[in-house]
Design goal:
The chain is mostly helical and about 700 residues long. Among the domains are: about 20-120 and about 120-165, Glutathione S-transferase Yfyf (Class Pi), Chain A, domain 2 (Up-down Bundle), CATH 1.20.1050.40; about 195-260, no CATH class; about 365-550, Neurolysin, domain 3 (Orthogonal Bundle), CATH 1.10.1370.40. The chain has 25 helices and seven strands. It has helices spanning about 35-60, 65-75, 80-95, 100-120, 120-135, 145-160, 165-195, 210-225, 250-260, 270-285, 295-300, 305-335, 345-360, 370-390, 470-490, 505-515, 520-530, 540-550, 555-570, 585-595, 610-615, 625-640, 645-655, 665-675, 680-685; strands at about 200, 230, 390-395, 405-410, 415-425, 435-440, 450-460. The strands form two sheets. It has a five-stranded mixed β-sheet, sandwiched between helices. Strands 1-2 form a two-stranded antiparallel sheet. Strand 4 (about 405-410) and strand 5 (about 415-425) form a beta hairpin. The longest helix is centred in the middle third of the chain and has 32 residues, at about 305-335. The chain is globular, with a radius of gyration of 25 Å.
Length: about 700
Amino acid sequence: MSTPAAEPAPTALSADNPLADVSPLPHRLPPFPDLTLEHCREALLVGMAQQRAEVAAIVGDEEPATFENTVVAMERSGALLRRAQAVFYALSSSNSSDRLREIEREVAPLAAAHSDALRLDPQLFARIDAVHDRVRSGDHGLDPEAVRLVERYHLDFVLSGARLDDAGRERLRELNQQLSRLSTTFGQNLVVATEAAAVLVTDRAQLAGLSDAEVEAAGVAATDRGREGYLLTLVLPSGQPAMAKLHDRELRRRLHEASVTRASSGEHDNGPVAAEIAHLRAVRARLLGFDTHADLVAADQTARTSAAVDELLSTLVAPAVRNARAEGEVLGELAAADGVELAPWDWAYYSEQVRRDRYAVDTTALRPWFELDRVLVDGVFHAARLLYGYTFTPRPDLPGYHPDVRVWEVADAAGEPVGLYLGDFFARDGKRGGAWMSSFVTQSRLMGTTPVVFNVMNVTRAAAGRPTLLTLDEVTTLFHEFGHTLHGLSSAVTYPRFSGTSVPRDFVEFPSQVNEMWALWPEVLDHYARHADSGEPLAREVVAAIEAAALWGEGQATLEYLAATLLDQAWHRIGPDTVVEDPLAFEAAALQEAGVAYDLVPPRYRTTYFQHVFSGGYAAGYYSYIWSEVLDADTVEWFKANGGLTRANGAAFRDKLLSRGGSVDPIGAFRDVVGHDPDPAPLLARRGLG
């Protein structure tokens, strides 16, 4: 079968392309109703060409390199490309289609080549190097943010191969091209495989244990896909929420196996893709002068070295395994009383029994108190108002990129506009699993821009006329992702390079994990936890029971996270001569060697659906969640010691840390808030690992 000829690349934007100019909508919100995928494709291709022309002008400047004519000029370049990328990559992850995937496969290698064209340009690096030399000599007259910008540009270029010779640069370009294609393939395989792995149930009786609303939602999911019966769609992690409630053990098994085997065979098998990605990353790291890809990544994080990552993880493995096995013994006794041997698909089910019996907590019965809109408006937004004075006004007149998307305008305590917030909460075909935050526009004084940020989740939509109810985990996720949103909204930097969440990967989760904590604080919980039908508040004794039960399950939760983290590290510690023939065997051996192999607790993500590291930005960096949680737990203790959710505490956290983005040393910003270096003790206590 012949391959269709690629469409010719446009050389200029068509007259009707809405991305040609800055959007006239408030805060430069993209004009989604006027945009087509072809507009995006065109703007991406022309945008790359425009930026290369802009960079050529910088390189061709006959004046000696200065901060303004080189580094600031680089910050200003690529405006069209940034607009196009923001829209296209939001759609590719949340509203994909066959045509979009075609464009993505076309554009991904071109984007990698474009990045290399900039980062591997010896003349451009020579100018940046010259500015960097003057900064290091002290002869510059720049403010601290400008100095940091020069340092960051220089490090970005060095880690991207700017010091390689001609042969090395050519080899690096080849590797980046291959990796771009493979990463795109991994992500697209996962979307299709996850949709295909959804579990169809034809007999409603098999859904016993789910609420009427959940059964109705499964019916809606089946109808939406043209299927008869009820469809249990998959979330991205291994554990599926329904397994905590389904009485039918065989259905629990089907759901579990669909989850942990997705994208592991057939046309969309991601095992060989992941192995090739890891191999090429190892080759690239060695080319750049590092022993492994993990070492390359750590060099640009707050951890600095793989040894520092190992030091933290090594303190957690033994107590996590011990606690998980102790939990498994308790659950095994409950399973034995039912005449079965405990299996992975039983864990969540019997764990809920422990919460009910030992702590009088039935988390699966809490959903009526967690209605989506109430959690968002009266919980998440309320906490942001208490701490930061932010208010959120619905803007139904402003369009999102999908009918599900809603828009709010954000103002500060003085009523001054801050930016826009978009929420896209419901699962649908074409949307990758999980939850995340991103931006359409980032804040920058240089560019005169205010932030336009969005959150995406995969909540199952309720049947028509019924409220959408969240699990306790989904409530936590909503608060978490909104923590990233606050990082973006609070940004107050000059240069786009530092805006909002543009911080090291092992620091970016810190503000979001702090924001998780407010979900159960009384002044927040009491404001949103109302029964969807009766309006009754969640009883204080229930909240007390939730808090008392907080440590139950932490062994399993910590172990599944550590297993994924150490699997990520194993894939990215291989040398360039290592070729993995059997990815699943490699995974099993890696977990065994790391001491986290426990059949009853699979990794939070297995290799074939580890989106974070094989098609996201977390390669060799999944450890960042626990690294950031050290900072988070320590910071929450600071909030408690200083009066809790007060405007003064919020102002300190925002002004000294959130607003600074990447413009300051992140650990220094942490120290400015809490007054000391990070202390792991609060984290160990929180997780019962002390």
